[in-house]
Design brief:
Blueprint lengths: L20 E3 L3 H27 L4 H37 L2 E3 L3 H34 L5 H31 L5 E2 L5 E5 H23 L13 H8 L2 H14 L3 E2 L4 H33 L5 H27 L1 H7 L3
Helix pairs in contact: 1-2, 1-3, 2-4, 2-5, 2-6, 2-8, 3-4, 5-7, 5-8, 7-9, 8-9
């Protein structure tokens, strides 16, 4: 007969400690990479086919329109990347998914469905646009109709060719994905949020500038299409400012991505910046008109441009503090 020693040191059970938080991986960025690969296959594949068969004298016009084609494609990638990031993070948080499984199969499936859906949508839109072009060129405001057509076409391709296949793939894999453990907090690097805000802001800015400048790009007969490349490159600095401002305003890690707040933050920031652009442009117009000296116009444009870029920093930080106040409160010391 044996008895337990009442003075013996108690031993804790040998079980693995449970982590209080889980780190969200880079799966949303991998879906963005899969989209870029599929988009590159569509873009370069379609242009290669036109080059081989020389459809409509494509070889002769290639050098003239190549800069515009590349700029529009890269500008579209910004919009698509922002949309993919928002949708993947939204599905992950909405359904409590810790890891998408099987990841490789999902990436391949998304890429294939993207290719198929994009070709179907592009073919259907091209078929239906023939009658629209004939009607639009007979109108006095054909530039406005062409701009509206381009924006609607871009939106249809985004929704039906990219977001719908992505949602379908994620929906079918929901039952196989690893769920989030109850009571387990999420640690998401804040640069994911900053990247998404900057992408949304830059995508809308580029689309807006592209629509407004549609009728002015070929105003002169010597235009060679490099204006589109310059317009795209002018979005690099605002993107960097917004991403840096949001990243430095947020803590190193956040507990939620909050796709709706990310989109709202970018749109409110855009609205505030556009108001500032209109006010500054009005002042510059009055100053230039009063001087009546065209040679001094660049002197009036440079300081306002620097001022508008500088305004992005406080505006982005204010919007971040407004829409992500909960994250800032959670990270503040008590």
């Amino acid at each position: 007969m044996t008895t337990d020693n009442p003075f013996a040191t108690p031993h804790a059970p040998l079980t693995a400690p449970v982590a209080a938080t889980t780190s969200v991986g880079r799966e949303p960025l991998q879906f963005v990479a899969a989209m870029m690969v599929a988009a590159a296959v569509v873009f370069f594949g379609s242009n290669a086919m036109q080059w081989l068969f020389d459809l409509g004298g494509f070889r002769e016009r290639l050098l003239q329109y190549l800069p515009t084609m590349l700029a529009n494609w890269l500008g579209g990638l910004i919009l698509y990347s922002a949309a993919v990031l928002l949708l993947v993070h939204d599905q992950r948080e909405r359904h409590g998914i810790a890891r998408f499984r099987p990841l490789a199969g999902l990436l391949v499936g998304f890429g294939v469905t993207y290719l198929v859906a994009t070709m179907i949508v592009s073919t259907a839109v091209s078929y239906l646009s023939v009658s629209f072009y004939q009607w639009a060129f007979e109108q006095g405001s054909r530039t406005l109709w062409m701009v509206l057509y381009g924006q609607v076409n871009s939106l249809l391709n985004l929704i039906l060719g990219c977001l719908l296949p992505l949602w379908l793939v994620l929906h079918l894999a929901r039952s196989r994905s690893a769920p989030m453990a109850p009571g387990l907090a999420v640690a998401l690097p804040s640069w994911h949020v900053a990247l998404a805000v900057a992408l949304c802001f830059t995508a809308v800015i580029y689309k807006l500038f592209a629509a407004l400048s549609y009728g002015a790009l070929y105003l002169y007969s010597g235009a060679d299409g490099w204006q589109s490349v310059f317009m795209l490159s002018s979005c690099v600095l605002p993107f960097a400012i917004v991403m840096t401002a949001v990243r430095t305003r947020l803590p190193a890690q956040v507990s939620r991505f909050a796709a709706g707040r990310v989109l709202a933050c970018a749109l409110v920031l855009l609205a505030l910046w556009l108001v500032a652009i209109v006010l500054v442009s009005t002042l510059v117009a009055f100053a230039a008109y009063s001087s009546l000296n065209a040679s001094s116009l660049p002197l009036y444009l440079l300081p306002p441009a620097i001022l508008l870029l500088a305004l992005l920093w406080p505006l982005a930080r204010w919007c971040t503090g407004w829409f992500f106040a909960e994250q800032l409160v959670q990270s503040s010391p008590r």
